[in-house]
Amino acid sequence: MTVKDVYRSLVKEFGTTNPFNIARQLGITVLSNDLGTNNKLYHTLEINNEIYLYNTHK
Q: pTM for the whole thing?
């Protein structure tokens, strides 16, 4: 299954393209914080089923 397939499936299932609404309906907590200058160099880290997005360069 491609990323596009997953996207289309989620949009169909939840009736929205809004990622925050989809996350809420899936029980995923979304926290936001200023990640500094956007150098497009982000990494993710998963700890205890929580996914963190962080900027590697400031």
A: 0.57
